[in-house]
Amino acid sequence: MKRYSDDVDESRLQEISKKLIECAKFTATDSDGVTSSMEIFPTSLPNYGDGALAFRLQALVSMLVVLIDSVTIMSGHNVITISQTGLGAIDTTLAAHVAEQVMVNLDAATK
Hints:
The chain is α+β, with helices and mostly antiparallel strands.
C-alpha cells in the first residue's frame, strides 16, 4: 500500500484499463531469444474504494503457463496493489477475497 498526502485521481485507473485493452495480446523475446506470448484478461470485482482495476496476465513461456492476477484499488489518498502468481493455475477468487479483507482493515484503521 502506498499512502499519498492528497487524494489520488481514480480516473487514472480508467486510462490504464483502456491501454491494457489496446495491448491485450503481445509477445516478448528475452536476451536468449526465447519468445513468450502474453494475453491480458479484465477481471470483474466489486467497486472497492474510489475505484479498482483488476486483470489477469497469462503468459506462455517455454511450454509453461504463467498466471498473474493483479488488483489495484484507489481509496482516498491510498493506492493498494494486490497480486498473485502461479504456474498452470491459481485460485481465481483469492484476489477478490484479499481485496475485500484489505478494505475492511483499511476502513477500521482510518476510523
